[in-house]
Amino acid sequence: MIEFVTLLLGLVTGTQAVELSVSEQVALVEIRLDGRFVGGSSRPPWIVNCDFGSGLSPHELTATAYDAERRELETIRQWVNLPRDRVEARLALDRSGERAAINARLIWSALDHQTPPSVNLTFDGQPLAAESFEAIPLPPHDVAGLHFLRAELRFSETEQAQAELVFGGTYGDEVATELTGLVMNTEKRAPGLGEMAAWFEKRGRAVPVVAVERGPVNLLIVREKSAATLAGLRRIHERHQQRIVASRQRPVRIPVLDDEDRVRFAFPTIEREQTLVGQGEAPLAMEQVKVSRDIRDFGPLFDILTDAFYPDQDVAVPRQQLADAVAIAGVVAAAGDRRRAVVLIRSGETRDDSRFSPQVVREYLRRLGVPLFVWSIPPEGSETAPPPPSPWGEEQEVLDQRLLNKALVDLRKELRSQVVIWLEGAHLTHEIELTDKARGLRRAG
């Protein structure tokens, strides 16, 4: 009945044109951002300009369809500046003329791909050919029967997306209860479910808690691509290995991660361009940050930090988008509502050409509930001079193994104090507040 054509992936700010696909029953569409009315449309093209502001913040974008009698038909939602798949696809019906004359429309968006993917279409299990994804003609079919349309999109060897659409007959949508994972720090132990009956609220209304778990960790590392940072980490690793050889003892590692935890790098070089996203008409600034696979096979976190280098990504460059990469690392860390943290390792040796400032990014990660640790490795020879003020605020020096181990202990303390509290309903987590009955909890980040 109504679908977003503009799929807002990446980091979104400023005014964007939001396009929708609607069925013939729809006479009016209204758009709201975080519950606030921003505009509507009553005729094609179904496009509404939406101002996401100059700052960086999570948003809830909703579109509501009404018929000619002003009766509400459907409301759909799209999360903005929150964890999303890097490739997404949807199918929408486009009825025109007689009831049985139906076209379908395939809507797709991908952060890392601008060329159309290869697509395999099936209708009721049979292959379906289409010259254009804008108007996919469906074969003759019984309008009273149940029908299944499926699209399989292949962007690369590792990135695929699927879209399904069921329509016709007596089919009725079954919507599962939506849940929101809120990451909190506990002082001692995770509170029991019964203890938190009235601990959370949103805009003055209670939000029920349905589960509490510890779960695995998403840890994202952003490592400045500078000679000082890389040399400093290599130096720490080499001296550590020399001590092991000299003492003939097994290495002592600070245990930070468990078997199910994930560790990845987000590399701070971004290819940014104004480009059309999918089939939408809104030009968006797309940040494309490469994120590594899970690299737990390198061993303990100490070794991952000091010995896991990527020749094609860790080459020193004079200018990079460090703050933008930290922002995107925060989104990746928050995916799946896991316990999480982002570690930034920097020397201050390179110029940061980010679109967003460190202050804006720190606040954004705070709203996402993602703790940020900034570790600094000053260039050799700078120890005697006072360090310049950091744009990131408080930093922790990791100039040698002792200081790095201390930083790892602090990171471990943060991660082990985190729990995931599952709340009933779909919410922006920064809008959830603790009531005066809550005890022993504080928001992560």
Anisotropy-based shape: globular
User: How many strand units?
Assistant: 30
Backbone CA Rg: 25 Å
- The helix content is 10-25%
Residue windows where pLDDT falls under 50 for at least 5 positions: 170-176, 273-286
Class of the largest domain, according to the CATH hierarchy?
Answer: Alpha Beta
Q: What is the CATH architecture term of the largest domain?
A: 3-Layer(aba) Sandwich
Strand content: 35-45%
Q: How do the strands of the widest beta sheet line up side by side?
A: 20-19-24-26-27
The figure for the number of domains is 2
CATH topology grouping of the largest domain? Rossmann fold
| Full CATH superfamily name of the largest domain | von Willebrand factor, type A domain
Biggest sheet details: 5 strands, parallel
Question: Mean pLDDT, as a whole number?
Answer: 84
Number of helices, counting only DSSP H or I runs of 4 residues or more: 5
Structural class: alpha+beta
Alpha-carbon distance between the two ends: 39 Å
Describe the protein:
It is a single chain. 36% of the residues are buried. This protein folds into 2 domains: 2-167, Immunoglobulin-like (Sandwich), CATH 2.60.40; 217-270 and 289-420, Rossmann fold, CATH 3.40.50. The chain has helices at residues 227-247, 301-307, 322-334, 358-368, 401-416, and strands at residues 2-4, 15-22, 28-33, 36-41, 47-51, 59-66, 72-80, 87-95, 102-110, 118-123, 126-128, 136-137, 147-154, 160-167, 179-186, 200-202, 205-206, 209-213, 217-223, 262-265, 273-276, 283-286, 319-320, 339-346, 351-352, 372-376, 396-397, 418-424, 433-434, 441-443. The protein is 15% helix and 36% strand. The chain is globular. Helix 1 (227-247) packs across helix 2 and helix 3 runs parallel beside helix 4. By secondary structure, the protein is of the alpha+beta class. The strands form 9 sheets. The protein has a 5-stranded parallel β-sheet with strand order 20-19-24-26-27, sandwiched between helices. Strands 4-3-6-7 form a 4-stranded antiparallel β-sheet, with no helix packed on it. A 4-stranded antiparallel β-sheet has the order 11-10-13-14, with no helix packed on it.
